[in-house]
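Entry 0007
Protein: FMNH2-dependent dimethyl sulfone monooxygenase
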Amino acid sequence: MMLDQNHRGEDAALSPLEAAKRNPLMLGLFLPIQSGAWSPSRAPRETSWTFDYNARCTIEAERLGFDLVFGLAQWMGKGGYGGEMKFREQATDPLLVTAGLAALTKRILLVSTVHILYGWHPLHLAKFGATISEMSGGRWGLNMVTGYKKSEFEMFGLEPIEHDHRYVMADEFVTMMERLWSEDENITIDGRFWKMKDAFIAPKPAGGKCLLVNASSSGAGLAYAVKHSDLIFVTSPAGANLDKACEALPAHTAKIKAAAQEIGRDVRTLINPHVICRETEAEAWAQYNAILENADPVAAQNFYQTFAGGDQASWKAATKEQWTIGGNVHIVGTPEQVVDGFKRLKAAGIDGVQVNFYDFLPDLKFFGERVLPLMRQAGLRLEGPLAAAA
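Output (structure tokens):
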């Protein structure tokens, strides 16, 4: 599907989010800003948590026409998830990483995860977000998370907060932040959880708001998400197996979109596939098995237990082996099979994929060379900046 001069002109007039939404399937990259990324395995790779490595990933993703990059946030003690590899002990902050990436990129959306209940005030984040929006030309987004790990709350000297109550607090926080972004007068609010008197920020973010993102599965979480979020990261209710995920997702995505429509909102759903793609199916599954065979047993067990426990509704169906590979859905095979997997996810109500890899830069390069052209042929992607300039 060729993007002609008129379409390119239309894209220039659209907001970064609206331009991204023109693609039949949005495409994002899940940045590896923690050591080990998503896979507690010692199989060979060069993936790194450093800013330089993530900048290289982001610049390449933008060159290939990806719509967004995204980094998660975590707070870990010494040793991370443990094991010989000290999985995720090294971790940079996604808010600062995306601020740094703003100066290195021109088109791609930059999404930061922030635990808003860990001591933030809405005025802080409204100002920081508006600043990165100005730095990036309106390309910054917030992935709002409330946190669920007891250990993280305790790091900040806080008591854990009951699950549904966290979203009551999040609603107040984000409502105040949205008002600071959009209103051009001093604002005084005597809220239940936060207060501010004659609060004001300028400049305002482009378009009067920043992109808002959330990952939720629970009733309370989804009620918050459809009210405030533009993009909702969903998880497979049936674990990482692609066949089972595609059976379970249609009802889940339909529920989300119906809830949004009831309040007059249009939201898009994204899911996080771990993509292992090689020229042959046998080579792809050999890589999959190598990741499992080289798993760090202590780190893998601790990582799995973190997500299997807790009061969050997501991820419960994933097995320890699936968590060792990483990602919410596994797509393994040839370029043609990967594209078929994306088509199946789209048919299940998914509007975009936020992919991650095991060895990010070489896997991303292969994805760009072999998978993206097939995605365009399949009608999943419009012609990207790289091809359009060729």
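Curator remark: DSSP finds 15 helices and twelve strands in the chain. The longest helix spans residues 242-262.
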